[in-house]
Amino acid sequence: MPSENIQWFPGHMAKTRRMISDNLKNVDIVIEILDARIPYSSRNPEIKRLTEGKPTLLLLNKASLADPAQNKRWQGCYTEGNTTCLLTDCVTGEGMKSLAPAIREILADKLRRYEEKGMQGRRVRAMVLGIPNVGKSSLINRICGNKKTKVENRPGVTLDKQWVSTNIGVDLLDMPGILWPKFEEKRVGENLALTGAIRDGVLDIESLAVVLCKRLRRLYSCELATRYKLGDPESFAELTDYELFETIGRKRGFLISGGEINTERTAIMLLDEFRSAKIGRMTLDRYSKEELPDA
Questions:
Q1: Domain count, the chain
Q2: Which CA distances in Å does 34 have to 120, 198, 231?
Q3: Which of 23, 179, 265, 266 is 20 to 30 A (C-alpha) from 120?
Q4: How far apart are the C-alpha atoms of 270 and 274, rounded to whole Å?
């Protein structure tokens, strides 16, 4: 189970932080990508600190997997000052056509100064940042229209910086995913694990699935009940989170000899169906100024 003190390759993260600081002066804008299902938990405070004062375009990526109402609330929350927030999805293409206009609008004054100096057509340079497995490489490939960067559905694939030219007048500097050295909030670590930002092999997958049951029964009990044929949510209100987890395994027929539940198979199924939105479009970070004072 992830905890608030889970460590994540501190040496590699220190190298990435240095890389960000060293290259920030070479770019016009930062494109920071968040996971729309966890807009608070996927925003690394280190990135915000390192890029302070730089024009920023925030992308709530994987928006088609997240709760539409929460998408709109978080988009409004994160659009302020020199930061603009867009909803995007590199699989469905949502928001892709808005990227170039948003970048030009954010940098309007700077681009006008370039034109006054006779530098019309100068390509904009953007640094792409985000936590592991948030969709940085997939997004870049979508913008380019062909495969430019290596993409896999697991964290930590991009290990070094790479410049990528696009057909929207922007050169992108793709950086490795960066997690912070430790999580001050247990919930943040859990959310990162639930969405796949932390490798499943590092964690107890069954304990993680029980955490998912705990979250979904509170936030999306009707969707959970419908997907796994649990009846009215009141019918499982008295069950413990683990008993609910076992009930879902039994409903799916994941049994082994002696009628016991195959808990590993149940856990894998639950996490896969949550991550692919088969249970429904869900957001684990609920927008609330009281809950998330720094959001």
A1: 2
A2: 32, 15, 34
A3: 23
A4: 6
Tens-digit pLDDT profile for residues 34-84: 999 999 999 988 888 899 889 999 999 999 999 999 999 999 999 988 889
72 dihedral zone (left: phi>0; alpha: psi -120 to 50; beta): alpha
> Distance between alpha carbon 267 and the CA centroid of its chain, in Å?
21
CATH number where 50 lies? 3.40.50.300
Residue carrying the six token digits 């709109």: 72
Residues 269, 159 share a domain: no
Task: Determine the structural domain holding residue 68 and report its residue range.
Answer: 10-174
Q: What are phi and psi of 251, to 5 degrees?
A: -60, -35
Q: Is residue 181 part of a domain?
A: no
Pairing state between β 162-165 and 170-174: antiparallel
Q: What is the pLDDT of residues 147-190, one digit of tens each?
A: 555 444 444 444 567 888 888 889 999 888 887 766 778 899 89
Structure tokens at 151: 């993409």
H helix and E strand count, the chain: 11, 6
